[in-house]
């Protein structure tokens, strides 16, 4: 029986020879990731053991990753206490893959997992974060779950009652025009199929454009697949995946690749030619409210954010720095830059990018989620407008329900920081 | 019979249900106060003890989209309210099943604030307008978790079975 890549991965993880959408399985989990919300997972985990003679003990401490990123450094005593509780649990349970608030190995979970070589093709990865879809970029089946489901995984090492999702095949062809890239592609796709267009389904990416795309770009499109409601986004692994894992993530052991069958059955087929794609902007207050840049060009912005699990990687910072090098951030706006990890921060420092940002008047912040989810490090004032390379623009997302957030690529964000209004990077400073 | 205490449109994100700035509050016993807090009127109605016992929120498509934060479910669970939505985003739906939040998917539901809904296994009847709406049942895999009383007891049973 021919299968999609996710059907194959799940079949192997559940010990089945074949699977089809709707089948219910209990896949073993290869990697279980949490961040600060590990504090809630611990609470639910201990509850499972209440009234039993069993000692609370995670199934495999080497397969659990906890990365502090949402509120780093802690913005409140409450958060600091949650982080403290997690650290104590990490020590008691000998959790192997723990990344504390550090400048060397710290950063955003969806950058730390790939760059540390924790994710391999064919793995099943779960995370208590909706953007866990990111890791499909390495050919893994990776999806977001809630804290209680993670507690269950910590106890049993498998996810219970998982329904095999149907798959949408997206074939992307053509060469990106200058200043147009993976972020524009995924925003275009979300606009096309809507915020629930892929709900309960997987998006499997194919085509020449994807094959030529770096792992960094693949992380962008898989990361935001969840904004179309997808359970997961996935790019079947190839030479680029092997190169990334060996050269950038330091993986030495052999990799087991999984590919979809050529005659696998898909729920839907979508073809996209990017050769004439314009820079795309997701307008307030839904991610599927996507417009071409010429429709919103000239909109005044008060804060530019470059970073997040979507666009805080080295190539994003290089693009942004190239747009503002030798120029100044407009007096009418402010620009915040969040490298996605300590490693990326150091690389950016080595390439002079941090200096480029600071000289231009941008503020370079610590690695982490920053203001993306509206907790700290860049809240918006009443009625203010942000232009951001992050992934969500829901009402109130950046901490103020009267503010508005537009989403875009690093090229658009940096070009606009110079002018103080939404600016097409292909047209320069107006 | 459940009284509709308010209605919301499509794509209501977990950021609207439970804003990020309250996420340091994690315990299900402490989250209910912050439900829909950026809309003081809705929040007030949820917290009010004057409302009738059985209450419903009627929502459009893609309810609970966005972040996987489980607080968005526990905050509503604390108010013993049934969510009747045209469709529900995957992670929110799974979290609702896992925590035992009462959810109903009725793809054509139409109701206004103040309407009375009678909800049975297969249909939701709006007693105020006289219209009835088909309910899409949850798959058996999720029903099992609900019948066990949520994912914690479901997992506990599995763990004890070895």
Please describe what this structure looks like.
The complex is a heterodimer of chains A (430) and B (162). Chain A is of the alpha/beta class and 430 residues long. Chain A folds into two domains: 5-272, Aconitase, domain 3 (2-Layer Sandwich); 280-419, Aconitase, domain 3 (2-Layer Sandwich), CATH 3.30.499. Helix content of chain A is 32%, strand content 16%. Chain A has helices spanning 5-14, 38-49, 77-93, 109-115, 147-156, 182-193, 208-212, 215-223, 239-248, 293-296, 308-311, 314-324, 342-350, 353-360, 410-419; strands spanning 24-25, 31-34, 64-67, 97-99, 124-127, 141-144, 162-163, 166-173, 201-206, 232-234, 268-273, 280-282, 290-292, 303-306, 334-337, 363-364, 385-388, 404-407. In chain A, helix 6 runs parallel beside helix 8 and helix 12 (314-324) packs across helix 14 (353-360). The longest helix of chain A has 17 residues, at 77-93. Chain A starts with a helix and ends in an 11-residue tail after the last helix. By secondary structure, chain B is α/β, with parallel strands linked by helices. Chain B has one domain (2-137): Aconitase, domain 4. Chain B is built from six helices and seven strands. A seven-stranded mixed β-sheet of chain B has the order 4-3-2-1-5-6-7. Chain B starts with a strand and ends with a helix. The mean pLDDT of chain B is 95. At the A-B interface, helix 2, helix 3, helix 5 and strand 7 of A face helix 4, helix 5 and helix 6 of B.
